[in-house]
Amino acid sequence: MNDSELQDMLKAARTPDHDQAYWDASAEQVMRNLGRRRLEHATPDGWLGPIAWGSAVALACVAIGFGIGHGDRGAVARLLQPEQQLRREWAVVPQRLGVVMQDEHGLHQLVADSY
Fold first, then answer.
1. Is the whole model's pTM more than 0.70, yes or no?
2. How far is the first Cα of the chain from the last one, in angstroms, to the nearest whole number?
């Protein structure tokens, strides 16, 4: 069936004979039924759902606590060392900013009277 045949079939079909009150009430009824189904599927059945989620959160907290308490403290220092070095280098960037200049011949160090 192509689009034109479908359009002809839909135009030939007639709507059931109902009064305006029926059509107004049917839209509200459909919306209520959709909302009710959405709520029915959103809630877990029984007590297993909340207990399972609570247990999963508690287990995650215990695992994180164990990892923090028994972790390699040297690893944390090794992770923070590049950050500290980067902070030191960024602190001197404004002082060195006017010292280097690039032109068509490459990078050159500027000699200035004062900064």
1. no
2. 82
The first and second tokens of residue 42, run together, are 């959103």
Of 78, 59, 77, give the one whose Cα is nearest residue 67: 59
Give DSSP secondary structure letters for 90-112: HHTHHHHTTTEEEETTEEEE---
User: What are the angstrom distances between the C-alpha of 45 and each of 39, 50, 56, 73, 107?
Assistant: 12, 10, 18, 45, 71
Instruction: Assess contact for 83 and 74: CB atoms under 8 A.
Output: no
Tokens representing 16 are 């059931």
Reported residue count of the chain is: 115
Radius of gyration of the chain measured on its C-alpha atoms: 36
d(CA 44, CA 89): 55
pLDDT in tens, 6-43: 888 888 888 878 888 887 888 788 888 777 666 555 55
Confirm if 35 and 27 have CB atoms less than 8 A apart.
no
